[in-house]
């Protein structure tokens, strides 16, 4: 149970990123930033950490002449995050 707690999701921002991406196919950078109420740099560093773990992937494209960067959760990310949430749930059940 406790072994499934993933340190990659301990941060409030990373928990928010993963939660948002689990229920959306793709989210662009600005939408995520507004949702989580964080700065560009803060979001960027947390996204990079999740990318390094291969929990999220990035897509860059142009919409008109403007660049757009979007993210989605990977299969590995879905599995790891689900295990993390299940472990938290089991801990909470044990405490009640």
Give your account of this protein's structure.
- The protein has helices at about 10-20, 30-35, 40-50, 75-95; strands spanning about 25-30, 55-65, 65-75.
- By secondary structure, it is α+β, with helices and mostly antiparallel strands.
- Strands 1-3-2 form a three-stranded antiparallel sheet.
- The protein is elongated.
- The model has no long low-confidence stretch (mean pLDDT about 95).
Number of strands: 3
Listing every helix as H and every strand as E from the N terminus to the C terminus, the arrangement reads HEHHEEH
Give the oligomeric state of the chains in this entry, treating copies of one chain as homo and distinct chains as hetero. single chain
- Low-pLDDT stretches are none
Q: For the largest beta sheet, what order do the strands appear in spatially? A: 1-3-2
Percent of residues in helices comes to 55-70%
Radius of gyration: 14 Å
Please identify which CATH superfamily we are dealing with: Winged helix-like DNA-binding domain superfamily/Winged helix DNA-binding domain
Q: Any idea of the CATH topology?
A: Arc Repressor Mutant, subunit A
Q: Architecture in CATH?
A: Orthogonal Bundle
The number of distinct helices, counting runs of at least 4 residues, comes to 4
The secondary-structure class comes to alpha+beta
Major sheet summary line: 3 strands, antiparallel
Rounded average pLDDT = 95
* N-to-C CA distance: 16 Å
Q: What is the approximate shape?
A: elongated
The portion of residues forming beta strands comes to 15-25%
Number of domains: 1
- At the first level of CATH, the class is Mainly Alpha
